[in-house]
Amino acid sequence: MSALLDAIPAAPAEPTWTIVPPRRKNTTKAKPHPPGKKSNAEVAAGNLAANSGRRTQTEIEPATAEGITADPVPSEAKPKTSAGAKPRRRPRQRHRNPRGRGAGPAPAASHASPGPSQSQHNKRPRPDDTVTPTGDSKRPRRGTKQEAVSYAEALRANQLCVAVMTSPHHDLTADQATVIRKSVEQRLMEGLLCPATTVQFGRVRFRGKAHFSDGVLKLWCEDDYTLAWLRSTVDAIASPIVGATLVVRPQAEIQRRILCGLFVPDDNELEINTLRRLLAAHNPKVAVNSWSLVRAERQSDQDVPGVHLLLRVPEKDVDHLRKEERRMYWLCGNIYLKIMEDVPPPASTTNTPVKAEDPNPAQPTPMEEALPSTSAVEDYFRDDGGSDCSESCLDSSPLRE
C-alpha cells in the first residue's frame, strides 16, 4: 500500500519568492595586474625602504590586491588609507649622510653633526668684532687734568731759566764753568751755616741741576728772590776770561750754534791757537774767536797735510758765510766751511745704479781739492756735545788764548 502511494505523483506546489544569499568572490586566485604597473602596497613599501634604509623592496613580500584573502600586510609597510582611496605619494627625503650598504664609511666623529645633547662651543671673538667701551673707565684717573698757564706765567718761567755767561760773549770751557759753579755753591753754604743769615739764605732755592752746555753755565731759579741773589753773587765772582765780566741772562738769549767742519791746509804744523789767530785776522767779518772747538785732528799721511776742525759756529756767522758761498780767506787762497746741516744723509749702498763716466769731467778748483769729503768729516768727527743732557759736551773749548 505504501508503495502504491509513493507511485502516485504529488500535486504541484504554488510558486513563491526564495531569498538567495549573495555570492562571495573567489579568493583562491589573485587578480592579475597590468604589466609595468605597481600596486599601492608596493609603492608604499618602496617609499618606506628609501626613507629608512633598513628594508629594501625585495625583502618585503608582495601583498595581494585589495579584497583578496591573504596574509595581512605589516602595519609599518602598509599605510592606513580609506577604502577605495589611493594612498598619497610623498616625495623622497634626501639625507646628508646616507645609510645602508651603499652609504660608504661612517663619517668621522669630529665631522659628525652634534646631537641634541651635545653643546656647540662658541668661537673666540675677533679683535675686529670687539666694541670699545664708551662708558667711564674702570679705574679713576688721577692728576691727568692740566691747568691752563697764562702768558705772564710762561714768560716768568722763561726768565727764571738763566745762564751764567761772559760779556762780551765768549764761550766758557768746562773747567771754567765748574769753577764758577763751585764759587756759587761755596757762598750759599757759608750763608746757610751762619746762624745770622740762615733764614735769609734758606729762601735761595734752585730747580733741576746746574749743567754746562753751549759754552755757558745753565741754572733754573725757583723764584725772583733766588734770581736776584744769583745776580748779586755772580757780580762778585771774578771772570776767568781777561777783559770780560760774568753776567746772568735768560737762556733765550744764548746764541744758537751750528755744527760745522773746516779743513785748514798746514805744512808747518802750526798750533791750534796760531791757526785761530790767523783765521780771525784774515776774516774780520766773522767772529772767529767766539767759535767753539769740539775736536781737532791733524792729517799728515795724505797728499795735502793739514788740520781737520770740528766747530760750533754762531748762527749769524753761518748766515754770513752762506752769502759768501761758505768761502773763507786763508793765506794765499780760500778754504770753505762745511755746514753739517746742509750735508744730505749718505745714500744707501743697496741697489745703487751705476752711472756712466763723463768723458769730459770738470776740473776742480785748486783749493777745493784739499777739502775732505762728507764721509771723511763724519768719520773724523762726531757730534758729541751741545745737548743739555750730554756729558761729552764738557770737552768743548773756545778758539782763543
From TrEMBL:
Q: Which Pfam families match?
A: DUF4780 (PF16012)
Composition skew (Basic residues), residue ranges: 22-36, 86-99
Indicate the segments forming the DUF4780 domain, all copies: 162-335
| Region annotation (Disordered) ranges | 1-148, 347-401
Write out the biased-composition intervals (Low complexity). 104-120
Name assigned to this protein: DUF4780 domain-containing protein
Instruction: Supply the source organism for this entry.
Output: Loxostege sticticalis
